[in-house]
Every structure is written in structure tokens, then in C-alpha cells.
Amino acid sequence: GSNALPVSAQTLAILPFVNNNPESTGDYLVLGFTDAVGSRLSAASGLELAGLFSASALQRQGLTPRAVGERLRTMYVLEGSVRTVSERLHTSVRLTRVADGSLLWSREFSAPSSDVVALEQEVADSIGKALQVQPADSDAAAAPTAIRAEAYDLYLKGRYAWEQRTRSKMEEALAYYRGAVARDPQFALAYSSLAEAYVNMLNFGHVPTREALAIAEVASAKAIALDTSLAEGYSTRGQVLASRGDYAAAESAFRHAIEVRPGAPWAHHYYALLLAMEGRFAEAERETRRTLAIDPLSVPANATLGILMAQQGRLDNARTQLERTLQLSPNFVVTLYYLGSVEAAGGRYEQARAHLEQALATAPNFPGVRGALAYTFSKSGRDSDARRLLRESRERVAGQASMSDERTRLNHALDMALIGNADSAFAMMRTAQWDIPTLFDLRADPLLRRVRADPRYSKLAGALRIKS
Questions:
Q1: What is the C-alpha to C-alpha distance for residues 430 and 116, in angstroms, rounded to an integer?
Q2: Average pLDDT over every residue of 189-209
Q3: Measuring CA to CA, which residue among 363, 318, 321 is closest to residue 344?
Q4: Is the pLDDT score of 402 beyond 60?
Q5: Rg (alpha carbons) of the chain, rounded to whole number
Q6: CA 53 to CA 266: how far, in whole Å?
Q7: DSSP letters along 180-235, please?
Q8: Over the stretch 346-395, which tens digit does the pLDDT of each residue have?
Q9: Beta 76-85 vs 47-49: how paired, if at all?
Q10: 218-251: b or e for each residue (b if 16 or more CB lie within 10 Å)?
């Protein structure tokens, strides 16, 4: 597509390393190996990496390594495998030139299992040499000790659980990350992953807003203090600041993350969400296309592109884009919700209902889902179902005795807005503490067009813009 990067610097796709252990023992180690080699190489000057997510999605579709490189328009493809034999880790890697399919370079490495970090570094540095680029040194790569090795092992288990994206696996990941920083208080990447996990849990409505932001703020600050070369630290800090409504500071954090590592897809992605929250939709779309140039099959970025199309009134394009995104990942709540809203906005209530019910089952606290489903029910003559959902929404607010969870109140305000009860909605929205998904929703949901046309909306948007 037109999103592909021109081949300028050397470009490389890394396929997920293969686990050559019997059964699936050590899967988490192998995922971590791919990740670590990738992030070390992505910091090298003169080398651009294709998105790991896209490479693994294409590999899962059964494409040959060379075909993956062709699809991602890279010059080279890296494959590797890892296995453990009596306390030693063995890995073999091969580098293929995409243009003619020729094997450029291959090598075997081995080290004691406790030296996994050193081994990852050695592998990345050798690949760098083969491509004649210089991987950057990161403070995170200080000499491994037994404690560091233990902490790193916990961190990898966290990463592996996190990849599975269900609520219980996310909670498991948090526990692993907390264990990692407790073992090794100098572990910058574990702090930044901990912070990102909290912001994400908050975005999906799995943890209370204030508590999550407080923890994420401390952890991201710690990550940056420990390692100023870590793009993830700045990107997570940007998310925390954006969630707090401090947009100018958030923007400079995202820009800094992108400067440190232009090829980090997440930094571009979260920056795009910030721009959309600020109503800067053309810029948001440009950043989203940058994310997709690096990682064309990224599910969140593909969903965001569809939402931005809907926001700008291109409902047919939005539907096509969101349906494509749903094929990449059939359970991502953001895709389900916005595709449901787009269908409802186009009067296709049956299709809308199916997507929205699935969204509600996947993430019951995701903003707007209940209201959009209530809207769909009331439009298709199922008033009692619509009333039941709104009653649930109201009871959830009443159940929040402490009012510590702003998300529940905001969800109710959005539900009111979605079914056309604008007075109650605006009264609740004026005093609310917004976060990224709720404000994004208010700005972008096609079913809230009437609300955005209300003169009270521009006043609200003005007040929110300057709130720090």
C-alpha cells in the first residue's frame, strides 16, 4: 500500500524466534529473545526495523521468510531459534537478503541460561556487524548478576503474559513486572512496562483511574531517571500526562520518544491519540499512517485509522477499514465498538448490535459501549433492552460510593449523551476528570455527532483544552 516506507536506510524484518524446546517450555524466553534483539537493533543508527507485530502476524499466516520481507518491503529478514540444553541456551540465527533470497550470514551462539541478557546483546551486536551498523549501548545492559538474571526472567514472563491481552493475563503481567523491579530496582525497562501496563489497564476500564495514574507516573519517571535512552519511558510518560490533561507536556514527551527512536510504532500511535483528543484530526491521521508504515498490521493503529475516517465523516471508508482490522484480531474491543457505532450511524442496526454486544462482553467498562448498544436497541424498537442497559449504567455509578472511579461516571455521561439525554450528559461532563479513551470517544464516536453540534460542546472542549 501507499503506507510502505521508501527503502532508504538498511531495513530489516525480524521474525519471531522459534522455540526448539520440546513442548512449549520457555516460550516466554523465546518471545523475550526476539524482543530484546529487536529493541537493541532498533536503536542502531542506519538501520530501520519493520514492526515485530506485523512480522509475526505474517509468519503465522504461513508466509516464507522471504515473502514476509517482500510484504514489509525490507532488504533483509532475520530468523532465529532458541533451545535450552542442560542449563545452557543455544541460539542460531540466519540473515536472508529479500531481493534474491540468498543467505547473507548465519551463526550459532551459546551461553549459560543465566546469561540470557549478555547472549541477546552478543546476537544483536553480531547482526549489527553483519549489516555494518552500530547498535547503541543502553544502560539497561549492565553486567548481568544473579539478581539481574532473576529480575529479567520475571520481566520476560510479564511480557509473555501481557501479549495475551486478556484481563487476567494483564493482571498476571503486572505482578511479574512488580516482582522484577522489586528484585532489581535499577531495571528501567521493567519500570516502563509497569507504567504502560497500568495506563492500558486504565484505558480498558480494568483499574480505577486515579490509582493507576499515580503508579504509572512514578514508574515512568523512574524509568526515565534510570535510562534516558529508553524511548518507552518517554512514550509512557506521554500517556500519563495526556490522561491527566496536560497536553503540551504530553506532546513533548511523545516527540522526545520519537526522537530517541523514530522507528518505535507505539510512540507514534499514542501521539496520534493525543492529537485526536485535541481535535487535530489531520495530524492524528498522519501520525497513525506513520505507525502503519512501521507496523502495517498493528491492530490498535489500524483501528485508529478507521475511527479517524469515521470522525471526518468518511463512514464507508471507516467501515471497510474497521472490518479489515477485525479480521486481524476478532476480539479487540476498540474495533468492535467503533465498527458497531459506524454500523448504527448508517442505520444497520442488526450488524451494529452483534459487534456492540461482543464489545460489551469483552470489556464491560470500555467507554460508550453500553450507550451505543442502548441507542441501537432503541432505534430497532427494543426499548426495554435499551432501558435495562441505562439502568445498569446508572447503578454502576450509584455503586461507586467513594466516587474514586471517574471512569464509571464518565461512562454514564457518555451513555446519556448517546441516547440523546444531552442536559444530564453535559452537567456530568463539565465536572469530570477525563482520560484518553473517554475524551477520544467524545471527539470521535459517529453516534455523538449531535452532541458535538450542541453549542455547549465547544465550550466544554475549550475548557478541557486548557485544563492542566
A1: 52
A2: 91
A3: 318
A4: no
A5: 23
A6: 11
A7: HHHH-TT-HHHHHHHHHHHHHHHHTTSS-HHHHHHHHHHHHHHHHHH-TT-HHHHH
A8: 999 999 999 999 999 998 889 999 999 999 999 999 999 999 999 999 99
A9: unpaired
A10: ebbbbbbebbeebbbbbbbbbbbbbbbbebeebb
